[in-house]
Amino acid sequence: VGSGSAVSLFRQVQGTGDSSAISKCSAAARGYIQDRFLQLLAGQRRRRAPLIHRGYYIRARAVDHCVQDFLLKTQSLPRTQILSLGAGFDSLYFRLKDMGLLHHTVVYEVDFPNVACQKATLIKRMKELSALVGDTGGEGLGAITFSGEDYKLLGVDLSELSELERALEEAGLDNKIPTLFIAEVVLTYMENTRSDALIQWAAECFPQACFLVYEQVRPEDPFGCVMQQHFSQLNSALHSLAQYPDCEAQQRRFLGRGWTECSVMDMNEFFTCCIPEDEQQRVQTLEPFDEYEEWHLKCSHYFVLTASKGMEPSWTPLLPSVTVPRHAGPVEMAGSGPAAVCARLLGIPGLKRYGHHSVLIKPNVILTTGGFGEEDGQHCRMRNFHVLSKHAGYWKAGCVTLKIPDKRRGERLYHTVSCLSDTLALVVGGRTSPSSAGLGMLWLKFPETCNASDSDDIAVELLSLQPAAEPAALRWRHSTTEMTFKGEQYLFVYGGRSTLEPVLGDWYFLHTRELSYTVIAVEGPVPESRHSHSACSWEGGVLIAGGLGAAEQPLGSVFLLRELEHGFQWQTVETHPPLVPRYSHTAHVHEGKLLLVGGVWLHTSSVPGITVIDLMTGVCLDYVINVEHLEWPLMLHNHSSIFLPDEKELLVIGGGGNCFSFGTYLNPEPVSLSLSSILTSH
């Protein structure tokens, strides 16, 4: 690496380290992690979003878990050492020292010389830090910028292995005693040949050692593409991903370079298996949160790995205390369906959104309301409604004129819209922010005459409902499904969540003509509470599929609320093979088949496409969506979809979300999926 490009790389990587320190500090301030030293080292305080807090919590928890396990297993030995590679402004040493865990352990930290010097200056300036470490005056010797009895801070470029080896030897690192190497989002910034050499050097030169790695994985799916693009824009490319794209490849990497044991899991698995249930619940209730999709996607794109040789693996406590809800192997795909951008909708503003709802208000006329998206170049809750119409085989966007005194009344996310007549639709629930109460109900009134050929401009009037604050409507991420009972029309409002309840399992029958709640007897096994599920009308009843359950775990159950003479009965729909648990998908019924579109699932290497369940036989087949003709990542969660049975066409509108610290991603255009090959082969 030339000196100019080396300086450039240092600045870019240092930038990610500074951001990481501030995020950890924010997470500590909100009670996610207990660490009073972060604020002293980060230097500045900035409030991050709840999603960022959770992400840095799971990272800190995974590293601490493995470090404390190493210390526990070596506590009877006279001497051990920890070598933190690319340590930045991390507080690990100070926390361990403060907890009295370093009786016979020396901690070595290595980072770029500039970073190490800054940190050394900070430690000397802060009495609380310098008192803990004590200064033995060893700085200035070679690469050492600060030296205490059990703490050495070195300024060395990790990619220069011979220089690193020499500096560590001068600082007193002893390759004969048990050593824990820590690389927390570090190796991926190095060229693979250099990081591979570092891994191999550690295995060859240290007979008793463990190596802990935390970094990114799965670069090729939509979230992975957004993640890669983010780091590329920062000029901090993630080099490991191309050669080591998944957990298995990372495991092979270490086993092929001298390590005898190697265990790896993604962060969804770590959270489920290695964090006690009461601690999971504590974290889940620390602050209002409603970004489940991005939390699970973030966790599926990071892993924690420990490799060992010459000593007991440092993974033993990570052996699952509960059964991992892991789908055995990759999901077997039965085929694929092509995805094509709707050519006539390029660049239409207002359709880039998520958490919205789309509904057919007339044949070939789709009304989209609410959500969070992009308007006039700004990200905001969407006030404007949009209409799409299909005429002469082409989709086009029209204008919607809203007749309301206050436009903010149209702002809501995760609501439902049900079309009840040629001129009326009912909006149920939704939210503004996760900390505010659900929004009740609204009527949408539109002209009787609008149709696909003349829908360039539709006037929609919003009418408040009294009383709008019924318990059934103060929820979001629920479902509202049209159904009939004894010849009368009802809306079945089911599940969701509210400000008080993170997940709901209740239901209401809303009589559409009188807009009143009716008590109707329901028997059978009650489905477990859920939100972000799908619900479809079928044979007078309702089909509920998937969703996110009470422990923030996706569900794979399918239930039918079947009509009986005196009421309804819950029945379980058995699927073969079992449906892969998922949530944030959409669903449609066509000729006795339940179609599930997209969503989020865990512990599988692929992303959900189209799943077809034969409701007569229970046979369940998964189909991949062929996106080779799309020039951008297609995120199939938080989207809406409309199925047109005559053409066997599925129109996907919007979708995406706030992708951790990588920015908000919104599908840029509606996508048309042809399902004819899938439905005819089934």
UniProtKB/TrEMBL annotation:
Swiss-Prot/TrEMBL GO biological process terms: tRNA methylation; wybutosine biosynthetic process
E.C. number: 2.1.1.290, 2.3.1.231
Enzyme class: transferase
Pathway(s) of this molecule: tRNA modification; wybutosine-tRNA(Phe) biosynthesis
GO molecular function, one term: tRNA methyltransferase activity
Keywords, sorted A to Z: Methyltransferase, S-adenosyl-L-methionine, Transferase, tRNA processing
Record keyword tRNA-binding present: no
Gene3D superfamilies according to UniProt: Kelch-type beta propeller, Vaccinia Virus protein VP39
Record's keyword annotation contains Iron-sulfur: no
Reaction equation(s) it catalyzes: 7-[(3S)-(3-amino-3-methoxycarbonyl)propyl]wyosine(37) in tRNA(Phe) + S-adenosyl-L-methionine + CO2 = wybutosine(37) in tRNA(Phe) + S-adenosyl-L-homocysteine + 2 H(+); 7-[(3S)-3-amino-3-carboxypropyl]wyosine(37) in tRNA(Phe) + S-adenosyl-L-methionine = 7-[(3S)-(3-amino-3-methoxycarbonyl)propyl]wyosine(37) in tRNA(Phe) + S-adenosyl-L-homocysteine
One Pfam family, short name: LCM
Quaternary structure, from the entry: Interacts with RNF144B/IBRDC2.
Function of the molecule: Probable S-adenosyl-L-methionine-dependent methyltransferase that acts as a component of the wybutosine biosynthesis pathway. Wybutosine is a hyper modified guanosine with a tricyclic base found at the 3'-position adjacent to the anticodon of eukaryotic phenylalanine tRNA. May methylate the carboxyl group of leucine residues to form alpha-leucine ester residues.
PANTHER family xrefs: TRNA WYBUTOSINE-SYNTHESIZING PROTEIN 4 (PTHR46529:SF1)
Family assignment from sequence similarity: Belongs to the methyltransferase superfamily. LCMT family.
Name by which UniProt lists this protein: tRNA wybutosine-synthesizing protein 4
Species assigned in the record: Menura novaehollandiae
